[in-house]
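Re: the request from the purification team.
They wanted to know what the chain is likely to look like in 3D before they choose a buffer screen. I agreed to run a prediction and write the result into the notebook, where they can find it.
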Amino acid sequence: MTFRYLLFHKPYGVVSRFGAEPGRPTLRDFIPVPDVYPVGRLDRDSEGLMLLTSDGWLQHRLTDPRYQHPRTYWAQVEGIPTPEALDRLRSGVKIGRYVTRPARAGLLEAEPAVAPRHPPVRHRASIPTAWIELALIEGRNRQVRHMTAAVGFPTLRLIRVGIGPLRLEGLAPGQWRNLTPAELARLRLDAPARRQSR
């Protein structure tokens, strides 16, 4: 069996599944490849990198939090996060009845060069915004948004820019491509004890 491995830049507003969603675009509006499934999801309001594959074993390996496979996000937040807020993101934030696992978190020195969002993010002249980079090893529903809100800096825009060694660069919103052999080899190295492909 030959497995497929695709990268997709999910635009804002797209539902990250192939089933029908009346009045809303889904993955099937962009990706004409049968029998591939998302490795994790992005909520409708989030953008960025998705990995899709027909390799169910690797899909499990990359999404099970036991294997601590990182996913990297850029979040535009309302306000300028304090060192104390960033430390809380790094050490774990209480959200409801659970505490998030430690994450990597830091301010981006400059606004990243990202494609415009449609519709654009709301801006309030009296409140500055900043971009932070977060790397998580778990993927609860709307986790980044809950984390930044919990430390006092709500997320206005969220873009996933990395899944393990894979990066978003070079893909415009709505574009997809196959992984290169080098990317696939690196991804397999990052999923230890990988079963041999059939």
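For the purification team: Residues 70-162 form a domain with the Alpha-Beta Plaits fold (CATH 3.30.70.1560).
Please add any questions underneath this entry.
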